Amino acid sequence: MARAGAAADSRAHDVTQPRITVLISGRGSNLAALLEAEREARLGGTVATVVSNRADAPGLALALAQGARISVVDHRAHGSRDAFDAALAEVVDRSQPDLVVLAGFMRILGPAFVDRYAGRMLNVHPSLLPAYPGLDTHRRALADGVRIHGCTVHFVTADLDHGPIVGQAAVAVLPGDDEATLAARVLAAEHQLLPAAVRAFCTGKLAVDGRRVVVSGERTSAPRPLFVPAA
Ligand code: GRF
Q1: pLDDT in tens, 111-127
Q2: Long-range contacts from 130-136, C-beta under 8 angstroms, 24+ separation
Q3: E strands, the chain, in order
Q4: Whose CA is nearest to atom 6 of ligand 1?
Q5: Which residue of 22, 25, 29, 62 sits with most ligand 1 atoms within 8 Å of its CB, as the best mutation to test the pocket?
Q6: What is the tens place of the pLDDT at every residue in 30-69?
Q7: Nearest alpha carbon, ligand 1 atom 10
Protein backbone atom coordinates (compact mmCIF):
# COMPACT_ATOMS: atom_id res chain seq x y z
CA MET A 1 0.00 0.00 0.00
CA ALA A 2 1.11 3.50 -0.65
CA ARG A 3 1.78 5.54 2.42
CA ALA A 4 1.65 9.00 0.98
CA GLY A 5 2.51 12.24 2.65
CA ALA A 6 4.14 10.60 5.68
CA ALA A 7 5.62 13.97 6.49
CA ALA A 8 4.57 17.43 5.48
CA ASP A 9 7.07 19.37 3.47
CA SER A 10 8.39 22.07 5.77
CA ARG A 11 10.46 23.84 3.13
CA ALA A 12 9.42 26.98 1.34
CA HIS A 13 8.91 26.05 -2.33
CA ASP A 14 9.27 28.35 -5.25
CA VAL A 15 6.02 27.46 -7.04
CA THR A 16 7.39 28.73 -10.34
CA GLN A 17 10.11 26.06 -10.35
CA PRO A 18 9.69 22.66 -12.02
CA ARG A 19 8.60 19.98 -9.58
CA ILE A 20 10.86 16.97 -9.19
CA THR A 21 9.86 13.61 -7.73
CA VAL A 22 12.82 11.46 -6.73
CA LEU A 23 12.55 7.65 -6.54
CA ILE A 24 15.02 5.85 -4.29
CA SER A 25 15.57 2.39 -2.81
CA GLY A 26 18.45 2.84 -0.41
CA ARG A 27 21.26 5.07 0.81
CA GLY A 28 20.13 8.24 -0.96
CA SER A 29 23.46 9.97 -1.51
CA ASN A 30 22.37 11.15 -4.96
CA LEU A 31 19.17 12.44 -3.40
CA ALA A 32 21.33 14.32 -0.89
CA ALA A 33 23.27 15.85 -3.78
CA LEU A 34 19.99 17.01 -5.36
CA LEU A 35 18.72 18.49 -2.10
CA GLU A 36 22.03 20.26 -1.55
CA ALA A 37 21.91 21.69 -5.06
CA GLU A 38 18.36 22.89 -4.42
CA ARG A 39 19.42 24.58 -1.17
CA GLU A 40 22.21 26.30 -3.06
CA ALA A 41 19.79 27.39 -5.82
CA ARG A 42 21.66 25.49 -8.53
CA LEU A 43 19.10 22.75 -9.26
CA GLY A 44 16.66 24.78 -11.32
CA GLY A 45 13.78 22.88 -9.73
CA THR A 46 12.34 21.82 -6.43
CA VAL A 47 12.27 18.31 -4.95
CA ALA A 48 8.54 17.97 -4.33
CA THR A 49 8.46 14.38 -3.07
CA VAL A 50 10.77 11.45 -2.41
CA VAL A 51 9.28 8.00 -3.00
CA SER A 52 10.89 4.76 -1.89
CA ASN A 53 9.91 1.14 -2.50
CA ARG A 54 11.48 0.29 0.85
CA ALA A 55 10.31 1.77 4.14
CA ASP A 56 13.78 1.21 5.63
CA ALA A 57 15.68 3.08 2.94
CA PRO A 58 18.20 5.32 4.74
CA GLY A 59 17.55 7.98 2.09
CA LEU A 60 14.06 8.49 3.52
CA ALA A 61 15.45 9.63 6.86
CA LEU A 62 17.75 11.92 5.02
CA ALA A 63 14.83 13.40 3.04
CA LEU A 64 12.84 13.88 6.24
CA ALA A 65 15.77 15.57 7.94
CA GLN A 66 15.83 18.04 5.04
CA GLY A 67 12.10 18.62 5.41
CA ALA A 68 11.13 16.91 2.15
CA ARG A 69 7.80 15.12 1.69
CA ILE A 70 8.16 11.32 1.54
CA SER A 71 6.06 8.34 0.46
CA VAL A 72 6.62 4.59 0.55
CA VAL A 73 5.22 2.18 -2.02
CA ASP A 74 6.41 -1.23 -0.87
CA HIS A 75 6.91 -3.53 -3.84
CA ARG A 76 6.37 -6.58 -1.59
CA ALA A 77 2.81 -5.44 -0.88
CA HIS A 78 1.84 -5.87 -4.53
CA GLY A 79 1.25 -9.19 -6.24
CA SER A 80 2.74 -8.32 -9.60
CA ARG A 81 5.06 -5.82 -11.20
CA ASP A 82 2.11 -4.22 -12.98
CA ALA A 83 0.24 -3.77 -9.68
CA PHE A 84 3.32 -2.23 -8.07
CA ASP A 85 3.89 0.05 -11.05
CA ALA A 86 0.24 1.20 -10.94
CA ALA A 87 0.44 1.98 -7.21
CA LEU A 88 3.71 3.80 -7.74
CA ALA A 89 2.26 5.81 -10.64
CA GLU A 90 -0.66 6.85 -8.45
CA VAL A 91 1.68 8.26 -5.80
CA VAL A 92 4.00 9.83 -8.33
CA ASP A 93 1.07 11.44 -10.19
CA ARG A 94 -0.21 12.88 -6.94
CA SER A 95 3.09 14.74 -6.56
CA GLN A 96 2.46 16.37 -9.98
CA PRO A 97 6.03 16.07 -11.22
CA ASP A 98 7.52 17.89 -14.15
CA LEU A 99 10.45 15.51 -13.80
CA VAL A 100 10.89 12.08 -12.21
CA VAL A 101 14.44 11.15 -11.17
CA LEU A 102 15.48 7.57 -10.47
CA ALA A 103 18.32 8.02 -7.99
CA GLY A 104 19.32 4.54 -6.91
CA PHE A 105 15.84 3.13 -7.55
CA MET A 106 16.45 -0.60 -7.76
CA ARG A 107 13.23 -1.89 -9.34
CA ILE A 108 12.74 -2.44 -13.04
CA LEU A 109 9.78 -0.39 -14.20
CA GLY A 110 7.39 -1.79 -16.79
CA PRO A 111 6.54 -0.19 -20.15
CA ALA A 112 3.28 1.39 -18.93
CA PHE A 113 5.10 3.28 -16.16
CA VAL A 114 7.97 4.24 -18.44
CA ASP A 115 5.58 5.49 -21.17
CA ARG A 116 3.63 7.54 -18.66
CA TYR A 117 6.70 9.63 -17.85
CA ALA A 118 8.36 9.46 -21.26
CA GLY A 119 10.63 12.43 -21.88
CA ARG A 120 10.47 13.50 -18.23
CA MET A 121 12.19 10.68 -16.35
CA LEU A 122 15.94 10.52 -15.78
CA ASN A 123 18.12 7.77 -14.29
CA VAL A 124 21.66 7.87 -12.93
CA HIS A 125 23.67 4.75 -13.75
CA PRO A 126 27.14 3.87 -12.44
CA SER A 127 28.94 3.22 -15.73
CA LEU A 128 29.72 4.92 -19.00
CA LEU A 129 26.77 3.55 -20.95
CA PRO A 130 26.36 1.73 -23.24
CA ALA A 131 29.15 -0.14 -21.42
CA TYR A 132 28.00 -2.13 -18.41
CA PRO A 133 24.23 -1.77 -18.26
CA GLY A 134 22.61 -3.61 -15.36
CA LEU A 135 24.19 -4.52 -12.03
CA ASP A 136 27.75 -4.98 -10.69
CA THR A 137 29.17 -2.35 -12.99
CA HIS A 138 32.33 -1.68 -10.98
CA ARG A 139 33.21 -5.36 -10.61
CA ARG A 140 32.74 -5.90 -14.34
CA ALA A 141 34.79 -2.83 -15.25
CA LEU A 142 37.66 -3.98 -13.02
CA ALA A 143 37.50 -7.51 -14.43
CA ASP A 144 37.77 -6.09 -17.96
CA GLY A 145 40.76 -3.96 -17.01
CA VAL A 146 39.26 -0.74 -18.38
CA ARG A 147 41.26 2.40 -17.64
CA ILE A 148 38.30 4.76 -17.70
CA HIS A 149 34.98 4.24 -15.98
CA GLY A 150 32.27 6.61 -14.86
CA CYS A 151 28.59 7.36 -14.71
CA THR A 152 25.74 8.35 -16.99
CA VAL A 153 22.49 10.25 -16.64
CA HIS A 154 19.99 9.21 -19.30
CA PHE A 155 16.31 9.45 -20.14
CA VAL A 156 14.48 6.31 -19.10
CA THR A 157 13.01 4.21 -21.89
CA ALA A 158 11.61 0.69 -21.93
CA ASP A 159 15.06 -0.49 -23.04
CA LEU A 160 16.80 -0.86 -19.66
CA ASP A 161 19.81 1.47 -19.24
CA HIS A 162 19.75 2.38 -22.93
CA GLY A 163 17.77 5.63 -23.07
CA PRO A 164 19.12 8.82 -24.66
CA ILE A 165 22.21 10.02 -22.79
CA VAL A 166 22.00 13.44 -21.14
CA GLY A 167 25.46 13.54 -19.61
CA GLN A 168 28.40 11.45 -18.53
CA ALA A 169 31.33 11.86 -16.16
CA ALA A 170 34.52 9.84 -16.49
CA VAL A 171 36.89 8.77 -13.75
CA ALA A 172 40.24 7.02 -13.99
CA VAL A 173 40.58 3.44 -12.82
CA LEU A 174 43.70 3.51 -10.65
CA PRO A 175 46.17 0.75 -9.95
CA GLY A 176 45.12 -1.06 -6.80
CA ASP A 177 41.47 -0.08 -7.14
CA ASP A 178 38.96 -2.51 -5.77
CA GLU A 179 35.18 -2.34 -6.14
CA ALA A 180 34.83 -0.10 -3.09
CA THR A 181 37.44 2.48 -4.08
CA LEU A 182 36.21 2.61 -7.66
CA ALA A 183 32.58 2.85 -6.57
CA ALA A 184 33.42 5.76 -4.26
CA ARG A 185 35.17 7.64 -7.08
CA VAL A 186 32.26 7.06 -9.45
CA LEU A 187 29.72 8.04 -6.78
CA ALA A 188 31.48 11.37 -6.22
CA ALA A 189 31.17 11.96 -9.97
CA GLU A 190 27.46 11.04 -9.86
CA HIS A 191 26.93 13.69 -7.19
CA GLN A 192 28.26 16.31 -9.61
CA LEU A 193 26.64 14.97 -12.75
CA LEU A 194 23.08 14.32 -11.57
CA PRO A 195 22.28 17.83 -10.25
CA ALA A 196 23.84 19.32 -13.40
CA ALA A 197 21.69 17.08 -15.63
CA VAL A 198 18.55 17.87 -13.63
CA ARG A 199 19.33 21.57 -13.91
CA ALA A 200 19.74 21.25 -17.68
CA PHE A 201 16.30 19.58 -17.86
CA CYS A 202 14.61 22.07 -15.55
CA THR A 203 15.99 25.06 -17.42
CA GLY A 204 14.74 23.70 -20.76
CA LYS A 205 18.15 22.96 -22.24
CA LEU A 206 17.48 19.36 -23.30
CA ALA A 207 15.92 18.18 -26.55
CA VAL A 208 15.72 14.53 -27.54
CA ASP A 209 16.48 13.78 -31.17
CA GLY A 210 16.05 10.05 -31.71
CA ARG A 211 18.68 8.34 -29.57
CA ARG A 212 20.58 11.58 -28.99
CA VAL A 213 20.03 14.39 -26.54
CA VAL A 214 20.86 17.85 -27.77
CA VAL A 215 21.95 20.15 -24.96
CA SER A 216 21.61 23.79 -25.88
CA GLY A 217 24.54 25.92 -24.87
CA GLU A 218 26.78 22.88 -24.63
CA ARG A 219 30.40 23.65 -25.40
CA THR A 220 31.28 22.69 -28.95
CA SER A 221 35.06 23.15 -28.85
CA ALA A 222 36.93 19.89 -28.31
CA PRO A 223 38.02 19.25 -24.73
CA ARG A 224 41.54 18.05 -23.99
CA PRO A 225 41.72 14.29 -24.50
CA LEU A 226 41.54 12.31 -21.32
CA PHE A 227 44.44 9.87 -21.32
CA VAL A 228 44.83 7.29 -18.60
CA PRO A 229 48.03 5.36 -19.30
CA ALA A 230 48.84 1.89 -18.09
CA ALA A 231 50.27 2.07 -14.59
C1 GRF B 1 24.25 4.86 -7.44
O2 GRF B 1 25.54 4.37 -7.73
C3 GRF B 1 23.39 4.86 -8.68
O4 GRF B 1 24.09 5.14 -9.84
C5 GRF B 1 22.90 3.44 -8.70
O6 GRF B 1 22.66 3.11 -7.36
C7 GRF B 1 23.50 3.91 -6.53
C8 GRF B 1 22.61 4.63 -5.58
O9 GRF B 1 23.33 5.31 -4.59
N10 GRF B 1 21.76 3.32 -9.58
P11 GRF B 1 22.59 6.33 -3.63
O12 GRF B 1 21.38 5.61 -3.04
O13 GRF B 1 22.19 7.53 -4.44
O14 GRF B 1 23.60 6.65 -2.57
Answers
A1: 999 999 999 999 999 99
A2: 130/161, 130/162, 133/160, 133/161, 133/162, 134/160, 134/161
A3: 2-3, 19-24, 46-52, 69-73, 99-102, 121-125, 148-155, 165-172, 206-209, 212-215
A4: 104
A5: 29
A6: 999 999 999 999 999 999 999 999 999 999 999 999 889 9
A7: 104
